[in-house]
Amino acid sequence: MDQNVSFKSGFVTIIGRPNVGKSTLMNRIIGQKIAITSNKPQTTRNRIQTVYTDMEKGQIVFLDTPGIHKARNKLGEYMVSVAERTIQDVDVVLWLVEPSDFIGAGERHIAEVLTRARTPVILAINKIDTLGKKEELLQFIDKYREIYDFDEIIPVSALRGDNVEDVIHTLFKYLPYGPMFYDEDTVTDQPERQIAAEMIREKALHALDEEIPHGIMVTVDHMKQRKGKQIMDVEATIICERDSHKGIIIGKGGSMLKKIGTNARFEMERMLGEKVNLKLWVKVRKNWRDSDSMIRNFGYKES
Question: How many C-beta atoms lie closer than 10 Å to residue 143's C-beta?
Fold first, then answer.
């Protein structure tokens, strides 16, 4: 295919503190759900690669990373390592923040990490739909200008889609000219099995109490098309760290597990465009987040 001589392509990482809306923004740009979202921090655990293609302008490969935070266990250390290492591997850094009267140690740590990046850094202030006056936004912009010399600052609402086109336009502005990395129909490099596991974990995050979600992991043990039918059979296991958590995840008479499964199946059927027969189990693996071997077995390893 002959490509436009003005075709641009490159890699963009979306970074920020946990729970600022990184996955929501990426899903909005791509136009479909790839990364899971929740109102609980540290939802994204791995580096998720998605692709936005405009055959007139170019192709952006997004890396949605775990939130940069103070690690409390080996899994947390892995997540922070992934996020910070990704900054060194891209053409543009998109730092997502939310309006706040206080810029804390976490934001200053990110600013310090970015000084070593040597790549254009664009600040996107998310959740502007929560602000009452324009003057408030200008105050936030001034505060962030004090801690880093940004190439661009864009106010945005990932949830509503406000100014998302401005974000895309600005990213293309800073990308180099180059070839397509992926076919124009590609939206992610994530296998369906991994996306399915994350969808189950998302529904568990939404349904469970605050103290449980960080200690759960989902593995898809079986995912196969039923012969001669438009039905995908999926068997998955929710891993938790305590016996007491297992009881809560299952719920009275299996009610909580059924709720998680029903909601996850709905998302999978939307993704696959066919019926899904989902079976869920729950197993305990004590303190798996502090076990190097279990972290590796569950797919959290340096790429």
Answer: 16
Is the pTM value of this prediction over 0.85?
no
Q: How far apart are CA 125 and CA 99, in angstroms?
A: 7
**Token pair for residue 226?**
């039923």
Rg of the Cα trace of the chain? 20
Question: CA 225, CA 209: separation in Å to the nearest integer?
Answer: 34
Pull the structure tokens for residue 252: 């009275």
| Residue 302 pLDDT > 80 | no
d(CA 118, CA 120) in angstroms, rounded, equals 7
Tens digit of each residue's pLDDT (9 = 90 or more) over 256-301: 999 999 999 998 888 788 899 999 999 988 877 776 666 666 555 5
- CA 26 from centroid of its chain's CA atoms: 7
* 214-248 residue pLDDT tens: 678 888 889 898 888 889 999 999 988 888 889 98
Q: What is the pLDDT of residue 303?
A: 43
| Full 3-state SS string of 29-79 | HHCCCCCCCCCCCCCCCCCEEEEEEECCCEEEEEEECCCCCCCCCHHHHHH
At how many degrees (to 10) do helices 192-207 and 255-272 cross?
140
Structure tokens at 273: 């465009």
Count of CB atoms situated within 10 Å of the CB of 76: 18
Residue in this structure with the two tokens 């324009």, named with its chain if needed? 134
Reference 182, options 51, 2, 34; nearest CA is: 51
The CA-based angle 205-42-245, given to 5 degrees, is 40
| Contact in structure between 164 and 29 (CB atoms under 8 Å) | yes
